[in-house]
Write a structure and sequence with these properties.
The chain has helices at about 1-50, 55-70, 145-155, 155-170, and strands at about 75-80, 85-90, 90-95, 100-105, 105-110, 115-120, 130, 135, 140. By secondary structure, the chain is α+β, with helices and mostly antiparallel strands. The protein has a 4-stranded antiparallel beta sheet with strand order 1-2-5-6, with helices on one face. Strands 7-8-9 form a 3-stranded antiparallel beta sheet, with no helix packed on it. It has a two-stranded antiparallel ribbon with strand order 3-4.
């Protein structure tokens, strides 16, 4: 009987130690998760506080729209869902002594964090080439992307539009998807 009890106690002790180690591991993981969640909560709280400090939305929105419409090359702007759609005048781009007609564009600023630029005129050599640096509406902004997205996050949409208009007025043969010569020359 003594051997039976001793064996049972030894087995239970071994299982109990394993369970205790599993609980210690779970506690360590939960502690790490708690710290991560606490940091996230702090970040969200700061973000909410920053959003509350924004000025009066109707007044600032009107002022921002005025600034946006004053950007050189902008023809109109409209809101569609979470997007701001900016329409441009016809854009002309000079490169190596020639002037090219790139046509009109639609800049789509999605306040959720996306930027698209589409050719309205479709003057490029192929339908999906909106601009020498834009394919299927996706601009190759390089290191400009982060700055544009930060401006959008701060609701500085006129300034973001200005940066994108400057981008549309630029051509770099080394980084272009296609050569500028695919667009019509202007007299």
């Amino acid at each position: 009987m003594r051997d039976l009890l001793a064996s049972s106690i030894q087995t239970q002790e071994s299982v109990t130690e394993e369970d205790a180690q599993a609980v210690r591991s779970q506690l360590a993981e939960l502690s790490r998760r708690f710290v991560t969640l606490d940091r996230r909560l702090l970040s969200y709280s700061r973000g909410a506080k920053e959003l509350r400090t924004l000025t009066d939305v109707p007044e600032s929105a009107g002022q921002e729209l005025e600034r946006l419409l004053a950007v050189r090359g902008v023809r109109a702007a409209e809101v569609a869902g979470s997007q701001l759609r900016v329409l441009t005048h016809q854009l002309m781009l000079e490169s190596e002594g020639s002037t090219y007609n790139l046509g009109e564009y639609r800049i789509l600023l999605d306040l959720a964090g996306d930027v698209r630029i589409e050719s309205i005129s479709r003057l490029g050599p192929k339908p999906h080439w909106d601009h020498p640096h834009i394919q299927d509406g996706l601009p190759c902004l390089g290191n400009l992307r982060e700055g544009v997205l930060k401006l959008m996050a701060r609701y500085e949409l006129a300034l973001a539009t200005q940066v994108l208009m400057d981008f549309l007025s630029t051509y770099n043969a080394d980084t272009a998807y296609c050569p500028i010569e695919g667009w019509p020359r202007s007299c």
